[in-house]
C-alpha cells in the first residue's frame, strides 16, 4: 500500500491525466463542433463531419464525466469550492453541453433544413462554449479565485450572479480561453482531415495550418504574461505532506513570478511548456504536408504539454484563493482520506486499461473515411 | 444564518432535475435488455424481423437515451454547484462510487452505444450483439454504483466523522459497497426499469395490433415485452418487500412515516391499508387496518415491535442533547484544544454530532440552544406523513396493476387468444404512463422520507447547500425550466412521430406505410 504523501502526489498526476484524456478525446469532438459551420456548408458535408465523431462522442464525453467524478472523490474540497464558486460559468458550460447528446441524435431524424441548421448551431455552441470556458477557468485559477473557508470548512465567495461572472472574463483569462478554444479546434480539425473526405477534409486542413501557429503564439504570450504580469502564490509554512488534510493550517503569500518557481527548482519541468510550444507548430507543418495521422499525434502531445504547464506552474496549488490565501487548496490539503485515495487508485489501475482497450477496439472497428456516398446510402440510420 | 427560501429553492432544483432525469433512466435500463433479447433471437435464428425489431425499438431507445445523457450531466455538476458543503462533508465516501461509476459503467455504456446505432454495416452479427450486450451491462452497472451512493445517503455505513478534517471519512469500502440498503435498492430500481421498458414496448405493440398493422412485428414485440415484464414486475414487488424489511432495520422513521404508525403498537403491528394521516393530531383518520401485516413485512417476526413516530421523536430529542455536547467538544477541538478529556467527551457523543448540527437551523452556535429549540428540532426529524403515505400506496397499487396486465397478456398470448381480447390490448395501451408514475413516486418516498437529512442522521439538508444566493438559484432554475421544457417537447414530438410510424421508419420497404396497399400481411 502506498503511503499517504505519495498517493496525494499520484492523484495530482491522475487528475491531470484524466483532464488530458478529456482534451484528446472529447476535446476532439468539441473541436469538430466548433469547426462545423466553417468546414461544412451543405447538409451532406455537415453529416460527413458529424459522423466522423458520431459513434464516439458519447464515450469521449465520459472522460469529462470521469474527470469530474474523480475530482469529487479525490479532491472533495476542490469539487466543492470550484463547482459552486464558478456557479454561473458552470451553468453556462452545462447548458451548452445540453446541445450535444440531443444534437447528435436528433439532428438527422427530421429532414428539414431549419431543424437541421438549428441543431448544427447547437453542436457548435456545445463544442465552442465549453472549450472557451475551460480555458477561462484555468486562467482564473492562475490568478486566484475569490473564496475563503470558514472554521467548519464551508466555502464562501465574493459576489454572486453577474458580479461574480464578469470578473472571470478578464483579459488574461480570455487569453487562456482562446488558447483552449483554438487548441481543441485544431485537434478537431486534424481529426476531420484524417477521417472526413472531399471539401470538408480540404477546408479542415487549411484551417489547421492557420490556427495551430496561433495556439503556439497565444501560449507563448500567456507564458510571458504569467512571468511579468501575474502574481503567483507561494507556501511559506505548512504541515507535513502526509498529515491529515487541513487547508487552514498553512501560510501562503502572493508573490510576483511565483508561478515560475518550479522551473528553477526542477529544471526538467521546462519540458512541458517546450512541448506545448513545439506541438502545435509541428501539427501545422504535418497537416500542411498532408500527414494528418502524425499531426493528430503531435496535436495530442502539444495539448498534454499545455495542460501540464498549467498544472506544474501552480504546483502544489490546485485552487489558490485571492480573498484569503491561507484558504487556498493544494494537492496536500484538499485530498480525500488515505483509504479513499487508495481505493480510487486501484479502481483507476484496474479499469482505465480496460477502458482504453475497448475504446481502441471501437475506433478500429469504425475506422475509414466518411464519404458522401456512405451518408446517402445510410441516410435513415446515420447521424 | 440559514435562509429557508434559499434552502427550499436548492431542494426544488435538485428534486426537479433528478426526477426529470429519472424519466429517461428506467426506459434505458429496461429497453437495453429487451434489445439484447431481440438481437439474440436474430443472431440465433437469422430471421430479419428480429433485426428490424432491434433496430426500431433501438431507434426509440436512442431518442430517450440522448435526453437521458443530457440530463445526467446536470446530476454530475449539481452536487458541487448547489450542495457544496455536502460535497466537502461527505465527498470522501460519496465521491468514490460516483467516480467508479464513470470508470466502470459510463465508459462501457457510452463507448459501445455509438456502435449500436451506427455499426450495423461495419460489424459482424456477433460483434454487434456483443456491442448491444455491453451497452445494456454498462447502463445497469451505472445504476449499481449510483444506488450504492444513494444507499449510503440513506444508511451511512462504513464511515466515521473526523474532527481534524471536519468531514465524514471512509472506514471500510466493502461496507459501503455491501450496504444492505444499497443492494436492495439496486435490484428494486433496475427491476422497475425493466418493468418500464416492458410496458413501453407492450403498450406500443398493443396499439399496432389494435390498429391491425405490422402484426407479425407487433405480436413478437408484445410477446417479448410481456414475458420480460412479468418476470420483472414479480421481482419489483418481492424486492420492494425486501426493502420494507431493510427499512424496518435501519430507516425506522421512513418506515413509520410511510405507514403512518404514530404510536408504537404491540407486536405484531398492523398495516394501514388506507386512511387520512393528520400530522397535527398524530392520528390517521378513517384507517383501514390489516392485522399483523406490518410486523411481518418489517421485522419478519410476530414478536418484535415496529417503533412509532412519537417514540422515535423522543429518542431523537435525547440524541440532539447528546449532539449538542458533541458539537461543543468539536468546537473546542477545532479551536486547538488537544486535551484528552475534550477528545473523550467528543468520542462519547460523536455518533450524535449530526443531531447536534440540526440545531444550527435555530442558532449559529448549537451549544447555546434552548430547551424549546431542542424540542422543535426533534419535532423536525419527522417528515410530513401524508405525502409519503399516499405516494407509497399509489406506487404499490400501480405495481400490482402492471403485474396483472403482464400476467393476463402473457397467458392470453401463450394460449393464442390475444387478438380476441381487445380489452386487454386497450388496457396495455392505457398502462403506458403507469411505470413512470410509479418510479417517480418511489424516488419521492425514498428522498422525501429521508428528510430532514441529506445524509441520514449525519448531515442536515439545510446545512448541505452551497453559499449561493436566492438570486443565483432563481437564475439557474429559470435556465433549467427553459431547457428542460423545450427538450421534453422536442423529445415527445420525435417519440410520438416515430412510434406512430412504427417499423416503417426503418426504410426497409417491408412495413405498413411503405407498401402500396393497406394490407396487414405479416412481413417476414
The number of helical segments of chain A is 14
- Computed Rg of chain A: 21 Å
Query: What is the number of helices of chain B?
Result: 18
Q: What is the typical, i.e. mean, pLDDT of chain B? A: 92
Unreliable residue runs of chain A? none
What does this structure look like?
The complex is a heterodimer of chains A (383) and B (524). In chain A, 70% of the residues lie in helices and 6% in strands. Chain A has 383 residues and is mainly alpha-helical. Chain A has one domain. Chain A has a two-stranded antiparallel ribbon. Chain A has a two-stranded antiparallel sheet with strand order 3-4. In chain A, helix 1 (4-39) packs antiparallel against helix 6 (113-143). The longest helix of chain A has 36 residues, at 4-39. Chain A is globular and about 65 Å long. The model of chain A has no long low-confidence stretch (mean pLDDT 95). Chain B is built from 18 helices and six strands. Chain B has helices at residues 4-21, 25-45, 48-82, 84-118, 125-154, 173-177, 180-211, 215-250, 252-258, 293-299, 309-334, 340-349, 353-357, 371-379, 385-414, 422-430, 434-448, 470-501, and strands spanning 159-162, 167-170, 271-278, 283-290, 453-455, 459-460. In chain B, the strands form three sheets. A two-stranded antiparallel ribbon of chain B has the order 1-2. In chain B, strands 3-4 form a two-stranded antiparallel ribbon. Chain B has a two-stranded antiparallel sheet with strand order 5-6. In chain B, 54% of the residues are buried. The chains are: A mainly alpha (383), B mainly alpha (524). Chains A and B meet through helix 3, helix 4, helix 5, strand 2 and helix 13 of A and helix 3, helix 4, strand 2 and helix 18 of B.
